[in-house]
């Protein structure tokens, strides 16, 4: 049922986007797909052999060797490949999936890492752009690192300033919508298919230590009249159907609304989850999360 609903979601979002009054610059969901990190080997200096194993005097940032335009030596096998951020990285070394988001949803970082938007690449409407997922400690170094990104951006669009608060222990959570990131970093959100091909952990911010794994194929709920039907489809149909499809008794769903919202968004955004998850997340993050229904009415 959830699979059939996903096809409806794509059609409905596309039709809703046509009547928007906040002047988005992209049309169609294809523009929102997660980018793949560029492999720049073709632009590298040919003076270095393919089996080159040195640093060529290139500096390192947060333990990663700089690559690309600043350092034309190819990344070594040990260092991995050259990311759009401008450093070499390999699996399990603190840099993960590509990330991309805008008003309607996104490919968020799936394990508590935070998006480092790469300036001038994959620019999105409403001030949201795409980049690479990196750990919070690396985010703290970005302003002075001299890389392609200068400041990390959370899944809700707010900026990384001081970093997520420290919290001991991961709270118990729902099997379909587990908590993730921060003290719950051992949780890797399940991979989803659809318009946003990624693992989506949403909610970590300067005010919230952990987030929630999403099951909405990366779609946001948006408090705009023209998206009311779409919000109802996500909350009333797709979210319960996903629980049932995964073998769990479906419970009603609600929308987590992060607080504060990012500056410059034309409308509030939120994420559809089981209502028990929404209430638990709100209660664990007083003043920094609310629960609303599909019509954006506050829930007790």
Main features:
single chain, 4 helices, four-stranded antiparallel beta sheet, 300 residues, alpha+beta, elongated, disordered N terminus
Please characterize this protein's 3D structure.
By secondary structure, this protein is of the alpha+beta class. It has 2 domains: 2-36 and 98-292, no CATH class; 37-88, no CATH class. It has helices at residues 2-17, 136-141, 228-245, 275-284; strands spanning 60-61, 64-65, 81-82, 88-89, 95-102, 105-107, 114-117, 130-134, 179-180, 201-202, 211-213, 221-222, 253-258, 269-274, 289-292. The protein has a 4-stranded antiparallel β-sheet. The chain has a 4-stranded antiparallel β-sheet with strand order 12-14-13-15. Strands 9-11-10 form a 3-stranded antiparallel β-sheet, with no helix packed on it. The radius of gyration is 20 Å and the shape is elongated. The relative contact order is 0.14. Residues 3-53 and 121-125 have low confidence and may be disordered.
Described by strand count, sense and barrel closure, the largest sheet is:
4 strands, antiparallel
Q: By helix and strand content, what is the structural category?
A: alpha+beta
Secondary structure: number of strands: 15
What is the percent of helical residues? 10-25%
């Amino acid at each position: 049922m959830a699979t059939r609903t996903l096809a409806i979601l794509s059609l409905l979002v596309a039709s809703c986007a046509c009547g928007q009054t906040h002047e988005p610059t992209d049309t169609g969901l294809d523009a929102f797909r997660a980018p793949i990190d560029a492999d720049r080997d073709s632009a590298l200096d040919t003076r270095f052999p393919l089996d080159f194993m040195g640093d060529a005097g290139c500096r390192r940032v947060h333990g990663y060797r700089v690559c690309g335009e600043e350092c034309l030596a190819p990344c070594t096998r040990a260092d991995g490949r050259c990311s759009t951020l401008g450093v070499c990285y390999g699996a399990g070394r603190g840099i993960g999936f590509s990330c991309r988001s805008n008003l309607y949803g996104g490919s968020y970082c799936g394990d508590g890492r935070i998006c480092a938007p790469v300036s001038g690449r994959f620019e999105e409407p409403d001030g949201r752009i795409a980049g690479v997922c990196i750990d919070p400690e690396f985010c703290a170094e970005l302003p002075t690192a001299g890389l392609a990104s200068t400041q990390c951006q959370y899944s809700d669009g707010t900026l990384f300033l001081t970093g997520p608060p420290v919290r001991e222990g991961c709270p118990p959570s729902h099997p379909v919508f587990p908590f993730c990131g921060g003290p719950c970093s051992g949780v890797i959100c399940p991979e989803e298919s659809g318009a946003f091909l990624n693992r989506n952990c949403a909610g970590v911010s300067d005010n919230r230590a952990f987030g929630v794994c999403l099951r909405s194929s990366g779609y946001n709920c948006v408090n705009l009249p023209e998206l009311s039907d779409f919000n109802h489809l996500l909350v009333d149909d797709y979210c319960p159907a996903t629980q049932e499809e995964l073998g769990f008794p479906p419970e009603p769903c609600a929308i987590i609304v992060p607080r504060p919202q990012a500056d410059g968004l034309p409308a509030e955004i939120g994420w559809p989850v089981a209502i028990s998850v929404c209430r638990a997340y709100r209660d664990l993050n007083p003043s920094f999360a609310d629960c609303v229904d599909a019509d954006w009415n506050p829930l007790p």
